[in-house]
Design a protein that fits this description.
single chain, alpha/beta, UDP-N-acetylmuramoyl-L-alanine:D-glutamate ligase, nine-stranded mixed β-sheet, 13 strands, 38% helix
Length: 335
């Protein structure tokens, strides 16, 4: 049974403040070009889009870092960008947001990972991806690991945010997890397919339904399927907890020797699920570092994910909104 008092919630919110969370993984830039289509190109049968507006936002692991900041924590993004125009824009966003950039390495052999979306009359016309999916070179790998080693004593938690763009190599994954366990630092994982089973001995392993299905080559449809998948993940990865996100079915929490716990979804209206996973892992990690138990942390994370699903686009959750909404649940007697 998940139970918060108003006083406990206020204390948890205070404890969010100043927690330093490193986010290691694939930094991305989301680019948006908005305009109108008024004619077809004479060069080819394609629409000509007259651009009215363009803007840029953090994507990937950078969006997780932004979520940490908006929730009151101190993010420490660790990853790479290229020596290119997209990298310059990314650097400007980091500076404007007031986020520490000492963990961002410029690698002139790779492009900045950028997703450019072209939208006309509210219709998504095309997405253009700039990226390199091969693993980073040994020199860059060593620089990232040295940075983590030099900062581990000042970090309250680490998120490994993997989008299979090459930053999280098998060696880096293993060494960072070992560092965290030696220093009693929380290490949580938001995985993707390629390195799925490399994340052994972490605090929380947080896959979604599809990622788990793809990794095991199974289908998760029934309650029995959910329980079986969660137990298989615990056994295979030896994580302290498995947090299996199930979309409209909420979250299932697994721990060895303990009956699984289910937390129903809190999405009142679903406008856009983009970025919800980033919000969940950010909130979860901050809550655990602030002293919440796994069920309480998962409840807050699930609630935060539900709130951002009600927004259009990738929008981070503000601490004030999250805690005020959960406080309303307490006052209504739902907690």
């Amino acid at each position: 049974m998940i139970k918060f008092t108003k006083e406990e919630l206020e204390e948890l919110k205070r404890n969010f403040e100043g927690k330093k969370i490193a986010v290691i993984g694939d930094m991305m830039l989301d680019c948006y070009f908005w305009g109108d289509v008024k004619r077809i190109s004479p060069e080819a049968p394609v629409p000509v889009i007259e651009i009215d507006n363009e803007f840029y936002r953090f994507g990937g692991a950078a969006n997780v870092a932004l979520n940490i900041q908006k929730l009151g924590g101190i993010p420490l993004p660790v990853g790479i960008i290229g020596y290119d125009n997209h990298g310059s824009i990314f650097g400007s966003l980091i500076e404007e947001a007031g986020i520490e950039s000492s963990g961002i390495i410029i690698d002139d052999t790779r492009p900045t990972t950028a997703k450019t979306r072209v939208i006309a009359q509210n219709q998504h016309i095309v997405r253009i991806d700039h990226e390199c999916k091969s693993y980073i070179n040994k020199e860059t790998e060593a620089r990232i690991l040295d940075f983590v080693k030099n900062n581990i004593k000042d970090i309250d938690g680490i998120i490994l945010q993997d989008y299979n763009k090459g930053v999280l190599t098998p060696m880096l994954i293993e060494e960072v997890i070992n560092l965290c366990n030696l220093n009693n630092v929380i290490v949580n994982v938001d995985p993707k397919f390629n390195n799925f089973f490399s994340y052994k001995n972490v605090t929380v392993f947080k896959p979604n339904r599809k990622e788990t299905e793809d990794a095991f080559g199974i289908r998760i449809r029934t309650e029995e399927d959910i329980v079986k998948a969660g137990r298989m993940l615990l056994e295979r990865l030896n994580s302290k907890y498995v947090l299996l996100t199930l979309g409209e079915q909420g979250i299932a929490i697994f721990e060895n020797g303990v009956k699984e716990v289910r937390i129903p979804t809190k999405a009142r209206k679903v406008a856009d699920v983009s970025g919800a996973g980033d919000t969940v892992v950010s909130t979860l990690t901050l809550a655990l570092s602030a002293g919440a138990g796994i069920c309480e942390a998962s409840y807050l994370a699930n609630y935060a994910g539900g709130l951002v699903c009600g927004e259009v686009g990738i929008v981070p959750i503000e601490a004030s909104k999250l805690f005020s909404e959960v406080e309303k649940e307490i006052l209504k007697g739902n907690l």
